[in-house]
Amino acid sequence: MAHREHLSLKVYDMLGKEVAEVVNEEQTAGLHELSFNGADLACGVYYYRLISGSFVDTKKFLLVK
Predict the structure, then answer these.
(1) Closest to 43 measured CA to CA, from 58, 61, 25
(2) Is the pLDDT of residue 1 over 80?
(3) I want to staple 28 with a disulfide (CB 3.0 to 4.6 A). Which of 2, 18, 22, 43 is the partner?
(4) Helix residue spans in 1-65 (DSSP H)
């Protein structure tokens, strides 16, 4: 049986306000791919936070249209 963890991927604006919840569900271990559509967001700098079990990672990205 494959290992499962709760996975959360959220996008935040520069002020720390959550602007999108991309994933919030249990997933099996392994490689996964998803798409994020930022069409409703303004161009600029955003952050995403990935949480899986005890792993937490926050990165900055630039949204350009």
Answers:
(1) 61
(2) no
(3) 2
(4) none
Give the pairing of strands 44-52 and 55-63.
Answer: antiparallel
Contact 46, 60 (CB under 8 A): yes
| pTM of this structure | 0.88
Question: Is 32 exposed, middle or buried, given 0-12, 13-18 or 19+ CB atoms closer than 10 A?
Answer: exposed
Ordered DSSP codes for the chain: ---EEEEEEEEE-TTS-EEEEEEEEEEESS--------TTS-SEEEEEEEEETTEEEEEEEEE--
| Contact between 19 and 11 (Cβ < 8 Å) | yes
